Amino acid sequence: MLSMGCRAAKSFQLKRRDLVFGSLAVLAAGWLSLGSCLHRTEAQDTPEILQRLQDNEGRRSQRELNEIRERRVGSFERENASVLRDLQPVVSGVRASTFEVINPTYWAAVGAVVTSDGYAITKASELEQDQPIKARFGRDKTVSATLVKVDAENDIALLKLAEGTYQPIHLHAAEPQPGQILLSVGVREPIMTLGVCSCEARSLLQRNRGQIGVVPQEAADGIAIYQVTNAAYRAGLRDGDVIMSVQGREVKKVPEFVSLIRKYRPGDELTVKTKRGDTVLDFTVKLGTVRSLSMDTPRFEAMNMLGSINSQRGGAFPWAMQHDSPLLPEQCGGPLVNLSGEVVGINIARNGRTASYAITGEHLAEVLRNLEIPGWPAASNQ
Amino acid sequence: MRVDRANNHGACSSGERRLEVQGFVSSILVVVTAFVAVLALATPVKAQSKNTLPTTAGSLDEWRQREAAVQQVVADATDAVVAITDQESFGSGVIVSPDGLVLTAGHVILSPAREFTILLPNGKTAKAKPLGKNLNHDAGMLQIEETGPWPHVEIGEASGLRRGTWVVALGHSGGYDLGRRPPVRIGRILQTERDALTTDCPIIGGDSGGPLFNLEGQVIGIHSSIGESIAENRHVSVQTFLRDWDRLKAGESWGQLPGTRSNESDGEDAAPPRRERRPPREPNPGKANPAPPLDSAVLGVELDLQDQVAILRVIKPDSAAERVGLRVGDVVESFNGVAIQSPQELIDQIAAKRAGDSVKVVVRRGAERIEYQIILGQLQTK
Which of A6, B124, B169, B337 could form a disulfide with B120 if both were Cys (CB 3.0 to 4.6 A apart)? Predict the structure, then answer.
């Protein structure tokens, strides 16, 4: 089992050979529809791979999983070994703080040291919590570890490593911005994956979201609202009003407004400062309940598994930043750094073909504070 | 190219580290909750010994520049990346003119709806009228019906793209979500064909129709389909749009999505005519063994797409190549006056020819440079 995740261990290499004649792409295809859609009539054409994934409820054989784990990275791909080799110096300062969590006997996750006496964090839901845990640094140093506590909401486990002196990470509080290059630090390879910040950090809570009942649109002074219904309407807000701030926080962009609302629960009362014409009005909006907005259907889920292995828990994080690094589940839990080698987050999940999540910025600092770790924050982290 | 019987999974003997993949690379059109097709793109892949090529990834400074370029693309382009819906399904698109012309994938506007809703990342919505579509290559166009000016991006050229070129993908993955901007992904060009690009920018349902950018922020492709591997992401080439621009804009719809019944019969594909002769799809696409077009030109050689130059790896017996005296190891430097720099370029050049065409081929053999006049052969059909 120790070979799990050795995507870089390539004792075989594949080559494509194509006999050259006219058209290269000879295609055979089938249509299928997803969800409640008009075009269901051709559903018999479900592609074999998707049908198989659906029939098996997403379960795949060990061989199929190994094919993903051990996929050969082509010479021209973004994660080619030579690309990652060039960037190795960037992560050199963080490698000593990074370890593999061995639990019970195989590589289950990556972890990051947060205090010099050996408190460390990792992803909780990949662990078998009643089984032995070890932390492996580099090739030769393996120490035992105990599970201290778990922040279930954020899926972070606090570990205490065996007595010794360790190199803690230093958190960089600034949130990564879309387009920023991000590297996931590893143990057997200095850099496990290279990716880019896909979206600013946001709430990924699906259930129990508060509903305000507006269609937002960016305007000069804030967020213009239309189709005002439910909670917002009851509170007195009307079409064309411009929301300037919520709970004292200025709102300018739709995603930040939506993310802010999504942080609250049904029944929460929010103070909303609004501009109607030239008049500034304050409203108190008591949030209603929103049904899940998830568009996930079995087929979309199956599609989302192509080329990817999902984490045990892939979503519903209160606050996380999406990036496109193709992490494996066991590669989550460790430090994510920017091109300056600063730790901007902790990888928390792989969620399908295009998305990985990291807990970042102020929220990560708050998660650590709430764990009440002796000796944290150290002076350098304050 | 050989077309195997359906064999979707490679036969991987688990004990050994030998992987033999035969047959199909599945490809799935990426629109969420609507249409998904698996295209079986027959690409025989054979196990080979080592073949590692050096790539120049660049220094940290180059990475900082690349990051800055990606962030600039995101800043300039995001506002023009729209979600497109017929109320049943979600795809993506990109606005390319101030008056609201939108490029998308053909299958995103396949529904008979006469009007689509487009949703901008800032929350604005507008009605759009479907214009034309070339289903042979999955290209589509819409016109926003409200007056602009609309945020828009510049259109680029695919001709300068090489394998390894860095690119940026945007799109409304999984459907429109007010709580986030369209997620940013990066990757590299892995293959260029006349009407399609393949990259390792990971895309998923909902991204269909979204834009692929070069690092200058110009659209070079439109997301179309995915395969089983995370490195199989296919995009309609911008050249397809440029070639078919007037027909698409005039509202003409033609062609057939590869291997489907969902075709448009009112119109003919100007190029390539051979596509019209594709045999009717078998009832079960997984079992289809589609014959290649009858008038495809055959040189009678095998290339290795991993090679950096077009080096002949196999000369087929009784082929045009064998008859004129081409030899294994010859490097093709030009084909009919066009300089050839990669195996793919040779494939593309041959693909543009018909059986019986006479072409001048210049090869390098050791220190020698030899010119041949070759009459291209016809594919032997069974």
Answer: B124
